[in-house]
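Hello,

Our lab assistant flagged a job as stuck in the queue for most of the afternoon. It eventually completed. Since we weren't sure the result was trustworthy after the delay, we are filing this so someone can double-check. Below is the sequence as submitted and the structure that was eventually returned. Let us know if re-running is recommended.
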Amino acid sequence: MGLERGWPSAAGRFLITCSMQQTIRIIVKGKVQGVFYRQSTQEQAALLGITGTVRNLPDDTVEILATGHPAQLNALLAWCREGPPRAVVTDVQSTELPLQSFKGFEVIRK
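-- returned structure --
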């Protein structure tokens, strides 16, 4: 998904681009609240060029809504499995959502 094959270039090579953005919802379980997970996620998203939001949920999990290119989102998912140094991540689940547009990456506080 997100892989498009273009017309041949003058040199006869096909140009391959991955230009389609997508939005995913990530739920992170474990010791992920009170360990700077949200702030660290915001910093990681900025490094990766991802927009979205991150917030704590009442069930002690962290929810991330993220929009970016597939490679960016895969990098974020890989980071989420580790998280910041004080986090103990036990599970990361992701679901693709309809494309959403965000301004930057925001930490949502209660």
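-- support follow-up --
The delay was a queue issue, not a problem with the job. The result is valid. The chain has a mean pLDDT of 87. The longest helix spans residues 37-48.
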